[in-house]
Specification:
This protein is α/β, with parallel strands linked by helices. It has a single domain, classed as Inosine-uridine Nucleoside N-ribohydrolase, Chain A (Alpha-Beta Complex). It is built from eleven helices and six strands. The C terminus is likely disordered. The structure holds calcium ion (CA).
Amino acid sequence: MTDTAPTRVVIDCDTGVDDAMAILYGLLSPNIEIVGLTCCWGNIWVETTTANTLRLLEIVQMPSIPVAMGARKPLLGPIWELGNGVHGADGQGNTNLPPPKLEPVKESAAELLVRLAHEHPGELTLVPIAPLTNVAAALALDPSIAQLYKEVVLMGGNFLAPGNAAKWAEANIWHDPEAAQMVFEAGWPITAVGLCRSNIWRSWPSVARRPPATSRSSVSTTSSATLLDMVGASARCTMPWPSRSRPTAAWPPTPPWCGWTSS
Ligand SMILES: [Ca+2]
């Protein structure tokens, strides 16, 4: 692989609006090759996150990327709360898009994560942007994947800003903390991108409005229109910050680079 080759990734997702944006960005970027997509519960039920993910592949006409359905609940205990108050009942801002014609592969998400690791040893970056249940299940199925993935770069945690699921907790970690512990202790190179970075658009909306630097023109118009529909609808259905977790005005103590605004 040369330095100019795209980064090859497997994305574990719970496709609500933000994951749809991330996945479409990856699909349209010449710098990223998505090798597989595994779906988890989280923003909405796993059947819906899987359908939303498959629909994205139809939009960009990339049906050959395997999509696997995974966990329906955390490792331990019941689902505490879904994100449908933010992402809509359909996980896509209540845009009520038609169901996809594509179907998931027969493997479970954990099985696909294990298979891809063995087929591409040392080549793939695993990018979880959902509760870590699928990744923990894959580790339980085959701990050797911690040596087979090149690295893990996950969206999760909360280091310099208040939480988005509870006062101090970020949703992807909070939704399945036991799974998160397994993933963080697995021994692979791991980078956690917390709310202080992933909420950067709160401070700089121009970042959110900026299209990918290079997009594949044949599909970008449709994708952009769909994205705008999703984002706009999601913003309309987003509920006020829940009283149980709203931080005080005194926190965080500073800085705009955290990306947090308390209003
Ligand atoms: Ca997510």
